[in-house]
Amino acid sequence: MTPPNMPPMDRTPLQMPAMARPSAPSAPRTPVSMTDAEATLRAQMIETLRRNQWQVKKSAEELGMSRATFYRKLDKLQIVPPNRRDGW
Question: How many C-alpha atoms does 86 have within 13 Å on its Cβ side?
């Protein structure tokens, strides 16, 4: 017996709220227009990643940001490590 305000438990993925639904592989992203500051940061991040053999932890520390922030900026600036070029 379930309380009346509880949702049914036999939901299929299409009936699930969007946030709970497993994500489908995304299509290739189109290039974004960047400000000069973003383009400069992108170049700095790529240079730092190359110097550190694409080690995110070291690169983030060197640029003075957390790994989480670094990963968000990688996504926003569409920087894809060479070993992930076929998709995440």
Answer: 1
Mapped onto helix, strand or coil, the DSSP state of residue 67 is helix
Q: Residue 55: helix, strand or coil by DSSP?
A: coil
- What's the whole-model pTM score? 0.61
Q: Which amino acid is at 16?
A: M
Residue whose C-alpha is closest to residue 22's, from 9, 12, 13, 31? 13
The Cα–Cα gap between 76 and 32 comes to 9
Q: Please give the distance of CA 73 from its chain centroid, rounded to a whole number.
A: 8
Tokens of 65: 């940001």
Q: Which of 45, 52, 51 is nearest to 71 (CA)?
A: 45
Question: What is the predicted pLDDT for the residue at 84?
Answer: 76
